[in-house]
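Sanity check

After download, print the first record. It should look like this:
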Amino acid sequence: MGFFTEHLNLIAQIIGFCAMAVAIIMYQNNKHKNILMLMVLCCTLWCVHFGLLGHWTAVAMNGLNVVRSAVFCFRDKKWVGSKLVPAAFILLSAILTVVTYENLWSIVPLAASVFAVISTWQTDPKKLRYLTIPVCICWFTYNTVNGSWAGMANELFAFTSIIVAIVRYDVMKKEGKTN
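Expected structure tokens:
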């Protein structure tokens, strides 16, 4: 147990870097359902990471993101297709932020969560990619303030991965340069 407590931050950062690897792969998919399934794994790892660091608003937002991504995988089902579903996730994000509020920086994961709800609600992977950019900006800011090195690196890599995917699937495809 002594090793664990002495190296808690290191263990948290390693788990965060594992989540980052999943995030990089995630945006290179061009199927909505695959992106969301990988997002479930990614957010689960972030829950563990932020839990070890003691940042409970981030844990709550990522925990909610696990549920949201899993639910949105079934968007084609009638019970998920209602516009009340994303509204409910935004409301839950606000409630969880109030419950886990640490300081003013707790609002940043809330903003990220709202953008994430809007982006993952999209069925078009192109819209999902573009609307995920503000999510990266919010989380990068939060991670910088709270010393999550893995989180900062993740957002830089995720942002880069999104840009690569935009070029690959949106720009080059538009220009007729992809297979």
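If your output differs, re-run the checksum step. Summary of this record's structure: The chain is about 80% helix and 0% strand.
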